Amino acid sequence: MKNLTFRFLLVLLVVQTLAHSQSKGMVFIEGSRYIPLYGRDSTVVEVKNFEMDIYPVTNLEYLNFLKENPKWQKSNILKLFSDKSYLANWNSNLELKPTENLNSPATYISWYAAKAYCECQGKRLPTVDEWEYAAMADETTRDARVKPSFNKKILAWYEAPHSNEDTIGLHPKNVWGVYDLHGLVWEWTLDFNSVLITGESRKDVDKNSNLFCGSASLNATDLMNYAAFMRYAIRGSLKAKYAMKNLGFRCVKLVKN
Asked: What's the CA gap between 129 and 191, in Å, rounded?
């Protein structure tokens, strides 16, 4: 009887382990209720369990996607799905410029292309709330937004020049095991255009430079809100066709309970 009970418990343990096993290249993020900082009027949001890519999608991974999906190649993509900057750092459909690194985040990618890439992997782009929820963690704490040092570090990253030539994984991973949510490139979200910014920030904006300026953050009263404002302001100024040097992406997928 004891042997039978032991075997049952062992099988149950194995089943539970498999049920929560992580997909390759992704980490499990346990959902919860949280309060987004900027632009949501302190509304509590519930985030369900999901998996997130450990790293942003790289040039090498996007190259493999282009080989299998020619319609998203530089000379083939429909104008409806991209602007003239799409894959500006590529010499041709399947060749990066010599200055580019295969292990750098894929940028100059439109929202349509990023969405298609994730869907081809059986995934999707993260929602704003999923991205913000994962990104509020530091190396030791799930919600590090109350730490002045955490917010100062993020703002220092935002103020520094960004470059898509940087290699992924050089910044410390957060408590979930995710790298580069801050400090490398900005990232597309599934519902980026659901964010509305008041004032004149959506008008007369140079998408490649002025979007990353926080001078209009009149409602950001502290470091925590100011950092969040930067992200919401950028998302509110984007269009799905935009392809920019400092804008990459990563994928997620929900975890079935």
From this structure: 9
